[in-house]
Amino acid sequence: MNILLVRVSSLGDVLHNLPMVADLLRQHPDAHIDWVVEEGYVSLVRLNPNVRRIIPWGLRRWRKSLGKKETRAEIKAFFKTLREQEYDYVFDTQGLLKTGIIMGAARIKRGGAKVGLANGSEGSGYEGISRIFHTRSIALDPRTHAVARGRLVAAAALGYSADTAPDFGLPGPDSSNRPAWMPAAPFAVFFHGTARDAKKWAPANWIATGQALAPMPVLLAWGSPGEKQEAETLAASLPNAQVLPKLSMDEAVSLARNAALAIGVDTGLTHIAAAFVRPTIELYCDSPKWKTEGNWSPSIINLGDKGAPPGAPEVIAAARRLLGQA
């Protein structure tokens, strides 16, 4: 059986789609699973050894140069590669026009199926026009957890139950190839940055938490000039903090993978740490906890909820529990 997964973005959504792979192989151990993903997230999907072939989708880059001959040639090559394989099943678990077009272009065998979402989740992007590319649309509860969405779509299509804990298929910590900026000793990482200010946790809370963790090193990641400035402000009040250089996707994943403790707001890198089943505290300040909370391991603690951010004492107590200090 040949199966194609179409989930191109964003970071957290691609990550939350990974358990589909283990589910499908549990039911069909000889299946070959391919994946279309935005080129910036190829390295994340590659960490799952059970994905046979990754087909990079470069729309974010292509949009900037659609008039160039080279870009049009790349797009043509993408669709040629996509159509090389004939699939038994194609799953679009994103439900957008762009992912529907990818699904529509993929080739299926006689009797095969193109399966997607019949509706969106509460608060998530969904474009109903994507259904025109389906041969079957699966309806889900609008409050379905982000990890469960793809799992339930595949389970409904292939006739099995997705009732086990999600298996992301990711490897454990890797001490053999650490970058120079990563301490050899156990460290905590604060994923404090997020695009929407309302989802951020108050600087005073980060400072109190970092001081309570001392002397454990605290690494501060950032992804924009504004977040770098915020990291530097936090580090100025912490004796044990290190502002990291700008990280590539591979380096950011390695950071989450190797942390002894990850504390972060509702953002992709926090969810990566949880998917690696690292000791993780997820902070919900202005987004619903039900949607993305790490609920598959006691090593993950979810605090706060939409409109009800947690306080520093609650987070410090959780950190001490995860570190075996409680």
Plain-language structure description:
- This protein has 326 residues and is of the alpha/beta class.
- It is built from 13 helices and twelve strands.
- The chain has helices at 11-17, 19-27, 42-46, 59-62, 69-82, 97-105, 146-158, 203-213, 225-235, 249-258, 268-275, 289-292, 312-322; strands at residues 2-6, 32-38, 53-57, 86-92, 107-117, 136-138, 188-191, 218-220, 241-243, 261-265, 280-284, 300-304.
- The strands form two sheets. Strands 3-2-1-4-5-6 form a six-stranded parallel β-sheet.
- Strand 2 (32-38), helix 3 (42-46) and strand 3 form a beta-alpha-beta unit.
- The radius of gyration is 20 Å and the shape is globular.
- The N and C termini lie far apart (49 Å).
- The model has no long low-confidence stretch (mean pLDDT 96).
Find the count of extended strands (DSSP E, 2+ residues): 12
Mean pLDDT across all amino acids? 96
Low-confidence stretches: none
Order of strands across the widest beta sheet? 3-2-1-4-5-6
Largest sheet: 6 strands, parallel
C-alpha Rg, in Å? 20 Å
State the order of secondary-structure elements, H for helix, E for strand: EHHEHEHHEHEEHEHEHEHEHEHEH
- N/C terminus separation: 49 Å
Task: Assign the structural class, choosing from mainly alpha, mainly beta, alpha/beta, alpha+beta, or little secondary structure.
Answer: alpha/beta
Global outline? globular
| Approximate helicity band | 25-40%
Number of helices: 13
Q: How big a fraction of the residues is strand?
A: 15-25%
